[in-house]
Amino acid sequence: MPRALQTVGWVLRTGPFLERCRERYGDTFTLKVAQELTWVMVSDPEVVQEVFKGDPRLLHAGEANEVLLPLVGRHSVLQLDEAPHMRERKLMLPAFHGERMTRYGEVMRDAAERELERWPEGEPIQLRPRMQAVTLEVIIRAVFGFRERERIELARERLTHVLDITTDWRSMLALAVLGPRRVYEWRYFQRELDPVNELIFEEIRRRREAQDLEERDDVLSLLVQARHEDGSPMSDEELRDELMTLLAAGHETTATALAWALERLVRHPDKLERLAEGDEDYVDAVIKETLRLRPVLPIVVRKLQEEMEIGGMRLPAGVSVAPCIYLVHRRADVYPDPYRFRPERFLEQPAGTYTWIPFGGGVRRCLGATFAMFEMKAVLQAIVGRLSLRPARPEPERIRRRAITLVPARDAEVLVEAAA
């Protein structure tokens, strides 16, 4: 197919298009999409393992993530490769250590409770934007570390504006026509970011001067105290880009995953009822099954720096190999009855390292995976413990694309009632 038609299939009908390709060509096939390099899609778990365990000097993820450059900036851990990536990753990892999750839990539960108080009963509401309100509040307080209500509201207003712009169809069209680098350098786009950048740089300055810095446990405070191997602190520009990275990676994605979980649960009342019993293992299984059947991102990408053999194929330098999350998660040989929403499968067998990959894998696995899972658990438990939900319409919601994410077509529309 011409590149233009492949682009249309990829953008408008991502899942069906990928499945038709696999039916026709098998587990490995090539796609060419506008403003992207040639993608070699792979969905055999053995080949996925080969990619994730491959030499990061030869398999660059930073270059492959260039679509995010206009928002996250060139210092972002998502944009870096090789030694610079590992240096930045080491600085950020302690902020997402499992023990810290309990400290963030109170913020997560409080954000969920605040949002639930605003939900009207007995009329249809769309959950995805309401889940976005929750995840944004968590990021503003737990990641950025804002405490004063006035600054929280200011941050919410400015960040929401930027997020709306970056996911708007006109921005996606600009990316398709101009490419990420030209959009990043485009002064019109940068002017839209100026209010957010001003707020973030001001907060970084305030944090560097804070007398209680060592007592704070928000991510920004931890990063301000972090030191490179030579003893130098992160620059203001590094801090800004990493904060925007955590916003981009942890806001829309987690909110969408929560919306999908509830969209699936209301159509499986037996699963919803069991979830309300509070079994921690079952909550975890529900989240894993949601991310299996409705992954928020369809692929992860690595750009080849030189000719390599992957999966028995010689691939030229410059192409990108793309483990396809969407197709790996729908393999019947790994997940019997793969289109059925059945959380119990993860109680019967743990998630595989190369067969359950919503957060990617290898040295580039998502830094915030533990944070996202913990947040989803906290929010889901808050909702099912307080409210009763049922679908606004009986038919399941189709998958549609919103920028680079896959979201419920009607934004997870439900009816809300007080829990019995």
Give a quick rundown of the structure.
The chain is α+β, with helices and mostly antiparallel strands. The protein is 53% helix and 11% strand.
Find the count of extended strands (DSSP E, 2+ residues).
12
Count helical runs.
Answer: 19
> How large is the share of residues in beta strands?
5-15%
Shape: globular
Biggest sheet layout: 5 strands, mixed
Helix content: 40-55%
SS content category: alpha+beta
Main β-sheet, spatial strand arrangement:
1-2-8-5-3
Question: Which parts are unreliable, with pLDDT below 50 for 5 consecutive residues or more?
Answer: none
Mean pLDDT: 92
Distance between the termini: 55 Å
Rounded to an integer in angstroms, the radius of gyration calculated over CA atoms is: 21 Å
Structure description:
Helices cover 53% and strands 11% of the residues. It has 420 residues and is α+β, with helices and mostly antiparallel strands. The strands form four sheets. Strands 1-2-8-5-3 form a five-stranded mixed sheet. A three-stranded antiparallel sheet has the order 4-12-9. A hairpin with a 2-residue loop joins strand 6 and strand 7. Helix 7 packs across helix 14. The longest helix has 23 residues. The N and C termini lie far apart (55 Å).
